[in-house]
């Protein structure tokens, strides 16, 4: 029989622990974010629909983006046992240098439209964390200003080949002079993808006021205050900034880009050279034969060709065929540190985060980017410990199974029907 007693007040108070009240609303909301999805929800509350949807959305039916995210969820981990994981080392080498973690910040366009601190927040947060930052040709901060924000860290530059080749050549020269150590030659954007959310929102650069945008801005006055009271948007390459995003991209990009352009830019660049937007094994092999330093398996976050290959699903075959000849970087669909660990296990040397970084930026500026990096770092370290590996090098294909919503026989049958 249970013996009961009247609790003593002192014993009750020992059980009652009150969390210190955080008066700073930004710190309070960022501390409440435990996942990238939490940051996304905060970002959606704080950002006008047009700017948020530009970040969150993808091309056409958004099938590529959905599949890319789903591919990471459709895995099974296989942990080892009885290994000492009291300390894990997340440091890795990529493109001739070190990174404290196996991910960097991907290039994103029009970033200051998401939140006014833009690339400065991303570059400075990356530098503080010891990971690389990549500036986009369509970034909204000058090359030299990014270098000033991250003077001792690793800066990479993503290049689009423009219709006016001299513009692209000038950017290459400026990035080299500023000490950027790697160039990402992008090959998946001969024209802009059909980003239907942007069209439906009437999203333009700069934002245009309409009855819809005014109504949407009423509960988000801080965004408009930041936008209207800070420096005018400065693009890394575009002199014309009026029009929809699709119009701007189509006016700047050149659909005639070819391997001769790749060779020309490669000769100009003194540092490491990567090709971004690789989506087939044959192209990966050809680029490895050409001796590029790295390839980036990417479908542009699902923002270009819808129904494009999922980079994470393409990864094992590419790693098997060319992993010994060229470094493999992967982006698209990463929302969790476990996604990064799975990518490394299946043969990637490094990963890039785009939307995850922008969600943090929209949720809280520089501090929000710091929170993104902190969340991913904690998830990477915890996943490695639970897999019972203490270094990146210990991760191997046996740690991960890619599950499939169709088995191989079903897929073969579907392909036969397609023929």
From TrEMBL:
<comment type="similarity">
    <text>Belongs to the FMN-dependent alpha-hydroxy acid dehydrogenase family.</text>
</comment>
<dbReference type="InterPro" id="IPR000262">
    <property type="entry name" value="FMN-dep_DH"/>
</dbReference>
<keyword id="KW-0288">FMN</keyword>
<feature type="domain" description="FMN hydroxy acid dehydrogenase">
    <location>
        <begin position="28"/>
        <end position="405"/>
    </location>
</feature>
<dbReference type="InterPro" id="IPR012133">
    <property type="entry name" value="Alpha-hydoxy_acid_DH_FMN"/>
</dbReference>
<dbReference type="InterPro" id="IPR037396">
    <property type="entry name" value="FMN_HAD"/>
</dbReference>
<dbReference type="InterPro" id="IPR013785">
    <property type="entry name" value="Aldolase_TIM"/>
</dbReference>
<dbReference type="InterPro" id="IPR008259">
    <property type="entry name" value="FMN_hydac_DH_AS"/>
</dbReference>
<keyword id="KW-0285">Flavoprotein</keyword>
<protein>
    <submittedName>
        <fullName>Alpha-hydroxy acid oxidase</fullName>
    </submittedName>
</protein>
<dbReference type="Pfam" id="PF01070">
    <property type="entry name" value="FMN_dh"/>
</dbReference>
<keyword id="KW-0560">Oxidoreductase</keyword>
């Amino acid at each position: 029989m249970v013996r009961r007693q009247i609790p003593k007040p002192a014993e009750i108070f020992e059980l009652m622990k009150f969390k210190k009240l955080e008066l700073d609303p930004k710190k309070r909301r960022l501390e409440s974010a435990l996942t990238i999805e939490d940051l996304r929800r905060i970002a959606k509350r704080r950002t006008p629909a047009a700017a948020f949807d530009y970040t969150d959305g993808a091309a056409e039916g958004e099938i590529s983006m959905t599949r890319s995210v789903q591919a990471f969820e459709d895995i099974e981990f296989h942990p080892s046992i009885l290994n000492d994981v009291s300390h894990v080392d997340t440091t890795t080498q990529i493109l001739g240098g070190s990174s404290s973690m196996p991910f960097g910040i991907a290039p994103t366009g029009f970033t200051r439209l998401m939140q006014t601190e833009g690339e400065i927040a991303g570059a400075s947060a990356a530098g503080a964390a010891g990971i690389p930052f990549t500036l986009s040709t369509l970034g909204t901060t000058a090359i030299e200003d990014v270098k000033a924000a991250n003077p001792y860290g690793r800066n990479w530059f993503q290049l689009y080949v423009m219709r006016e080749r001299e513009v692209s050549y000038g950017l290459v020269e400026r990035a080299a002079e500023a000490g950027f150590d790697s160039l990402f030659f992008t090959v998946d954007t001969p024209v802009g993808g059909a980003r239907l959310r942007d069209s439906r929102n009437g999203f333009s650069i700069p934002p245009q006021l309409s009855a819809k945008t005014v109504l949407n801005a009423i509960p988000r006055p801080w965004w408009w205050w930041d936008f209207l009271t800070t420096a005018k948007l400065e693009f890394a390459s575009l002199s014309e900034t009026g029009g929809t995003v699709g119009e701007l991209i189509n006016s700047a990009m050149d659909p005639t880009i070819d391997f001769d352009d790749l060779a020309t830019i490669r000769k100009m660049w003194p540092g490491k050279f990567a090709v971004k937007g690789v989506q087939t094994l044959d192209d990966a092999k050809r680029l490895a034969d050409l001796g590029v330093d790295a390839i980036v398996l990417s479908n542009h976050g699902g923002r270009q060709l819808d129904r494009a290959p999922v980079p994470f699903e393409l990864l094992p075959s590419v790693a098997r065929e060319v992993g010994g000849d060229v470094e493999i970087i992967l982006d698209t669909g990463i929302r969790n540190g476990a996604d990064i660990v799975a990518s490394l296990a299946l043969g990637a040397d490094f990963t890039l985060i785009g939307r995850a970084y922008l969600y943090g930026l929209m949720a809280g500026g520089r501090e929000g980017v710091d929170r993104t990096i902190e969340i991913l770092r904690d998830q990477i370290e915890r996943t490695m410990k639970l897999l019972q590996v203490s270094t990146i090098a210990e991760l191997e294909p046996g740690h991960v199974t890619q599950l499939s919503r169709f088995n191989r026989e079903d897929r073969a049958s579907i392909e036969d029907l397609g023929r």
